[in-house]
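Q: Structure tokens for this one, please.
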Amino acid sequence: MGDGSDDVAGGTSGTERRMSDRRDRTIPELLAEHGPATGPDLAALLDAHPLTVERRCTDLQHRGRIRQGTGGRYTLPGSDRPDATPGSD
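A: Here is the predicted structure, written as tokens:
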């Protein structure tokens, strides 16, 4: 249509997409640094709403960038790190 409405397809503006892209990169970086984490754990680290983080994690799972393991903890694919927190046994 040429009026810029294509930028908001599906209700996502260009700004929201850029913020989402940054968060998508940050979640795998956090998992690499901190190891397995739940959605609420990641939300606290990102200072973001837990539902927002869960949606991002679901999207990242569909793209194969992260996976959800035991106890709902997110990990990186191929990660050899255990799902349990060290020292929790």
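A few notes: Residues 14-34 form the longest helix (21 residues). The CA atoms of residues 9 and 53 lie 21 Å apart.
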